[in-house]
Design goal:
Number of strands: 8
Strand content: 25-35%
Largest sheet: 6 strands, antiparallel
Amino acid sequence: YREDMTIMRDDMSVSASSTGQDSWRSGVTTAGVAGEADAPKVLKQRFVLEEQIGCGGMGSVFRAKDLRKVEARDTQPFVAVKVLNNDFRHHPEAFIALEREASKSQGLRHSNIVSIFDFDKDADLPFITMELLEGDELADLLRAFPNGLPEELAWKVIQGMVLGLGHAHIRRVHPAR
């Protein structure tokens, strides 16, 4: 296991991109950003990153509060925010891959596919905002049943995956080759 070191902005009041200053710091781990002594981590003076909920090869996904939704008194102000980790942040091909992922996914509206809202940057940190899904991850579900999922549950999971995959296939969205 390799610890993911994602970079977040500290200052909530002033964006580094507007002041020319860099107030980045590393060290966000799977423990999340909530509970640290510093101010909350914020992207674009809008998305307050509250906790890390996942990480993959290129980046991490955080549960975030959208301050614009809070201002509008939305009853569900939370989104998921995917950001590139340090290893990929300065690689142009990683930025392009993240943009393509967002672009391809934005055209897919299906109950079995997470909705992508936007692709953006805060200074030199690209990120995607997307629907925040609540519930158990498939990996956790599989760990809970080490000898295999009960048949009824397995078919329910498989059906959901196939429906989402079929929808993407019909719209000619395929993995990068």
